[in-house]
Amino acid sequence: MRKASGGLAAIAFGLGFAGLVAAPIALVVHLKDGLPEAVREKSVLSHARALQRRIVTLDSHVDIPPDYTKVPEHDPGRLTGMQVDLPKMHRGGMDAAFFIVYVGQGPRTPEGYEAAKDAALLKFTAIRRMAEELYPDEIELGVRAEDVTRIHEAGKKAALIGIENGYVIGKDISLLEKYYDLGARYMTLAHIGHNDICDSSIPLSHLGDAEIEHGGLSAYGREVVAEMNRLGMMVDVSHISRDAMMEALRVSAAPVIASHSAVSELGNHPRNLSDEQMEALARTGGVMQVVAFSAYVKVDAARAAEERGLRSRVARAAGDAHFSYIKHGKLPAFVNGMKEIGARYDRASLEEFVDHIDHAVKVMGIDHVGISSDFGGGGGVKGWDNAAETVNVTAELIRRGYSDEDIEKLWGGNLLRVWSEVEKVAVRLAERREAEAGMQPDAEETFLPDENIAPAEHALGPNGG
Ligand SMILES: [Zn+2]
After folding, report:
1. 261 CA distance to ligand 1 centroid (A)?
2. What's the confidence (pLDDT) of residue 33?
3. Residue 137 has pLDDT above 70, yes or no
4. Percent of the chain at pLDDT above 90?
5. What's the mean pLDDT in 181-198?
6. Residue 19 counted as domain residue
7. Looking at CB atoms within 10 Å, which of 99, 173, 190, 273 has the fewest?
8. What's the structural domain count of the chain?
């Protein structure tokens, strides 16, 4: 942000920006060189702040550490080293966030599934503890789309829950309802590495993944989507392979979301979405939450090659054929190597991130795009590096000419519309099941024939007519 110089900024501020944005803008048009931009910049920031006070600003993907709420460093009520905590949300005007129950892909064995479930339950407990026990006056758990607006109007932050990686249900589809009851309202079908539900956009060689395993969703994966539709849980296609995403769009009875994805056209990464995928998502009524993840926003082939080289060197030095984040990710050779590479390459900027939003809006239309940070999970760009800097995103959208109405849609309006639609589809599906059940004889009210009675007498009913 540039500093406003001289008395003109003071004059502009003297006019009072809240609710009186048009007047200062008209004023600066006639100012001489040098000053107008500074004044305009002040005006953009106050416009952004005023707008954010009115609308819901929702981030659809915020990761939490495994010991969230358990240790002072990860106490969301304090100003912490985490990119998202309550003080930062207040400062940046972030009103709502999907806090993520993320579990990395592991072995598909009974022990693996059990460990994944335990890790998931720990995160559910932590998120609910934040909202229900620690800071109930500041933040409230939302379980319906309409809750978010209600909570915002009550002056509180909304905590929403998403699951990242269908691995946490293993082969037990009943766990979906258990997680739904704990508050989960979306589930990313897979993460990095294939699972039982579908293929990932990035296979994990150390888990023995083939390039393609299911060729889209598995038969079980199609059941999982149907069960999510029944419950009213949003299907999230971020991270999954192109074919899995396209199949999810075909088989889902409700629109789907990409909770945190960037644009392939601007960054050629297997994790990003092509224009074809984005068009299909918009056509089926879904929403893409563009992610501020530097390595996806600004894909640098030379940097990626250096990182690949580092990974294989570290793995070899440890006597392993393949690199594993779990096994090698904390080794000094890897951590320092990444730091050294990072120092030589530029991270993506806020402007480059908003280029992805622009592109998504051009391809999908303003009604199908939203915003996510992936804070806590590697997200952040220069200029939007934590929740306290959220107003910078709004200001950049204003600079690019988005209207207040557009920005409201981008900051959660579209996602909340899709969420409501998913809720409505669940109701419609329940009604259809009831109607279908009504056409069948109801066991409790129908006379159960005794084998000894002649068929003609059945029609008379239990009392003989
Ligand atoms: Zn992710």
Report:
1. 8
2. 52
3. yes
4. 79
5. 98
6. no
7. 173
8. 1
Ligand 1 center from residue 239 Cα (angstroms): 7
**Distance from the alpha carbon of residue 63 to the mean position of ligand 1, in angstroms:** 9
- Residue 244 lies in domain: 56-298+346-437+448-460
Q: pLDDT > 70: what percent of the chain?
A: 86
CA 164 to ligand 1 centroid distance, Å: 7
What is the distance in A from the centroid of ligand 1 to the CA of 260? 7
Residue 333 forms part of a structural domain = no
Q: What pTM was computed for the model?
A: 0.84
**Gap from CA of 321 to ligand 1 centroid (Å):** 25
Q: What is the arithmetic mean of pLDDT over 422-443?
A: 87
State residue 445's pLDDT score: 45
C-alpha of residue 191 to centroid of ligand 1, in Å: 7
Gap between the Cα atoms of 397 and 358, Å rounded: 9
Q: How far is the CA of 409 from the centre of ligand 1 (A)?
A: 22
Looking at residue 224, which CATH number applies to its domain?
Answer: 3.20.20.140
Q: What is the pLDDT of residue 205?
A: 85
CA of 375 to the centre of ligand 1 (A): 10
Cα 336 to ligand 1 centroid, rounded to whole Å? 23
CA of 259 relative to ligand 1 center, distance in Å: 8
Ligand 1 center from residue 94 Cα (angstroms): 20
Ligand 1 centroid – CA 394 distance (Å): 23
d(CA 329, ligand 1 centre) in Å: 17
Is residue 17 in some structural domain?
no
Q: Do the domain assignments include residue 286?
A: yes
